[in-house]
Amino acid sequence: MPLIAGLVVTFVLAVGTAVAIGRLGRATPAQPHLARVPAGTIAQWGIELSPVASPPICSPLQTAADRGLLRQGTGGCPVSQDAAVTAAQRGGTGVVLEAQLATITLGRSNQIPHDQPAWIIVLRFQPNGLAGLGGCQPGAPGCSGAPSFSGETAQIVIVDAYTGHVLLDVPVLPSDGRRPRP
Predict the structure, then answer these.
(1) What is the per-residue pLDDT across 74-128, written as a single tens digit (0 to 9) for each?
(2) Listing from the earlier edge strand, what are the strands of the sheet with 166-171?
(3) Which residues contact 17 (CB under 8 A, 6 or more apart)?
(4) What is the predicted pLDDT for the residue at 48?
(5) Structure-derived torsion over alpha carbons of residues 130, 175, 101, 109, reported in degrees to the nearest 10
(6) Phi-psi domain of 111 (left: phi exceeds 0; alpha: psi -120 through 50; beta: other)
(7) Whose CA is closest to 58, among 83, 88, 35, 33?
(8) Please, how many CA atoms are within 13 Å of residue 15, restricted to the half-sphere of its CB?
(9) Would you tell me how many other CB atoms lie within 10 Å of the CB of residue 45?
(10) Cβ proximity of 122 and 36 under 8 Å
(11) N or C, which end of the chain is more exposed by having fewer CB within 10 Å?
(12) CB neighbour list of residue 60: distance below 8 Å, 6 or more residues apart
């Protein structure tokens, strides 16, 4: 067993070194942008995103964690996108419209800390799908302005980048409507 563990560690370090060498000339990560979220929702919540810089070793560690060889978040790395999406869906069947790793600040809410490293997952659900998951259902209190995607709803799910726990659900407003939050 120690031999297998040693081989896994050696492999992860070798892949991490190769990834690091490949990234030496790269610039900082690109500015995150929520392309599938209307400007009204972004303005309503004061959503501000900035890039998260992950160490080069994170990619192989995330792959090993996805395969059950390591725990998610090992080595100070964010959980993988797959793990974050699984957490956001909460066992449901929401369709991923967008998923980005970013540092998020909600300028008009104190429900999460400022500059929170998180996965920002935008999901599309059938109308009753969110209620069963504890999220928003169109017309429910606290969810005014739930979006319209041909009878479906969308929601931003903010997942802690390092623990994989869901921090907050944000209803997506239809188009660019700027309604006050209840």
Answers:
(1) 888 899 899 999 999 988 778 999 999 999 998 888 888 889 999 999 998 765 5
(2) 47-50, 95-106, 116-125, 153-160, 166-171
(3) none
(4) 92
(5) -80
(6) alpha
(7) 83
(8) 13
(9) 22
(10) yes
(11) N
(12) 11, 12, 15, 16, 19
pTM over 0.85: no
Which pLDDT score, from 0 to 100, does residue 9 have? 66
Judge whether residue 145 has pLDDT over 80: no
The DSSP-derived string for 106-154 is ETT--SS-TTEEEEEEEEEE-TTHHHHTTS--TT-TT-TT---BTTBEE
Contact yes or no for 42/177 (Cβ under 8 A): no
pLDDT at 50: 93
CA 119 to CA 172: how far, in whole Å? Answer: 16
> Which of 143, 157, 136 lies closest to 90 in space, CA to CA?
157
CA distance 72 to 167: 17
Q: Which of 161, 57, 75 is nearest to 115 (CA)?
A: 161
| Sequence-separated contacts (24+) of 146-150 with Cβ below 8 Å | 146/171, 146/172, 146/174, 147/38, 147/171, 147/172, 147/173, 147/174, 148/174, 149/124
| Residue 75 contacts residue 56 (beta carbons within 8 Å) | no
Length of the chain: 182
